[in-house]
Amino acid sequence: MSLLSVRDLTVKFAMREQTVTALNGISFDLAKGERLGIVGESGAGKSITGFALMNLLSRPGFIDHGQIMFEGEDVVTMNDRQLRGIRGNRMAMIFQDPMVTLNPVLTIGQQMIETLMAHRKLSREEARQIAIVKLREVYIPSPEERLEQYPHELSGGMRQRIIIAIALLLDPQMIIADEPTTALDVTIQADIMELLLELCQSNQVGLILITHDLGVVSQMTERTLVMYAGRIIESGRTREIINDPQHPYTQGLINALPQQTLPGQRLKQIPGNMPPLTNIPPGCPFNPRCEYATDVCRSRIPEISHFGEVEVACHEVQRLQSNDARREVKA
Question: Where is the ABC transporter domain (predicted)?
Answer without folding.
Answer: 6-254
